[in-house]
Amino acid sequence: MMDHLSVPKKEAESVLKILRNSNAVNSRFRIITEGDNVLIPINEEVSLSDLNVEYRIVKHEGNPDASKIGRPLKFKGSYDVIGDIAIIKKGDQEDPEVIARKILETKKNVKSVFLDKGVRGEFRTRDLELICGQGNTRTIYRENGLRFVVDVGNAYFSPRLATERYIVAKSALEGERIIDMFAGVGPFSVTIANMKRCEIHAFDSNPAAMDLMKENIGMNKIKGKIFPHLGDASEMILKYSEMDRVIMNLPHTSFSFIEKAYAALRKGGFVNYYEILDSAGLEDRMEKFREIGFEMRNKRIVHGYSKFLNVYSIELFKNLK
For the SAM-dependent methyltransferase TRM5/TYW2-type domain, which residue ranges apply (predicted)? Predict the structure, then answer.
């Protein structure tokens, strides 16, 4: 025998939506019709006070949904997990709510699932819609042995650059002077400073990101020194020269700032550059980089962006000439 919420048929649809948003439905069992009521199977740990609904819980022999027993998580669309938060993008053939429920069923650490409706506004924040779960946007995310406080609703963060951040940190040399132009909550800066004794100037114009960055600097053991700067990166970088490295993680508009990055570098300095490009656009960029005075040292695809576009990581070297 297991717990079911007894609900009048005419109210079942609205109540079911409330239960699913609270991750209260035991989706491995079927909803049962009994006279004028439906019996909705609920998870054992759920109580009426948790649900904030005025119906009674009854004991009933569960009716297993055979289609969901041992069923793997397969669906159209992609999602990222950041701490206890999952962020999905709508697929071609499946409803976001269906995807969200599957994630909550299979990823026991996930407590909230949001739909990403795009990056918008001055501070490049995600436009998020809660699909299921608690709805907290703040979480603790772990990467490369470090912890980061992330607020997915107030500062952009992507877990897909975890390997990239490690590669850049490993390639940096002891004593480098570095500018992290679009630092966000500080994952590049903290990862580098954790591994190398560097001096890093981390820029961001988003006050929420800056506050989170300061938290992240404080909660991790780092060898280097990070100096957070709130403001417009395109203006702040003009104050610097003879830097060893500039990190440019702003894939939609990085190229707008490339000449300022060049001016801030010493001869022989590096740029870690990120942009969303197709194959033709990549060839065009390579030519433009050469015209400015850069040589390309490394190039790799970080991840796909759409059918014809990829996020590229390009390491540039300022010519010694």
Answer: 79-321
Instruction: List beta partners, residue 276.
Output: 311
Query: What is the side-by-side strand order in the sheet with 2-8?
Result: 32-34, 37-41, 2-8, 56-60
Name the packing angle between helices 187-195 and 207-219 (round to 10°): 20
CA 134 to chain centre: 18
Average pLDDT, the chain: 88
Which regions of the chain carry the CATH code 3.40.50.150?
158-318
Amino acid at 201: H
CATH 3.30.300.110 domain span(s) along the chain: 78-136
For the cut 80, the answer to whether the pLDDT of residue 145 exceeds it is yes
Enter the tokens of residue 304: 């796909």
User: Start-end ranges of CATH 3.30.70.2580 in the chain?
Assistant: 2-68
Q: Record the pTM.
A: 0.75
Assign a CATH topology to domain 78-136. GMP Synthetase; Chain A, domain 3 (3.30.300)
- What is the tens place of the pLDDT at every residue in 254-268? 999 999 999 999 999
For residues 130-156, average pLDDT: 94
Give the integer Cα–Cα distance in Å for 312 and 299. Answer: 7
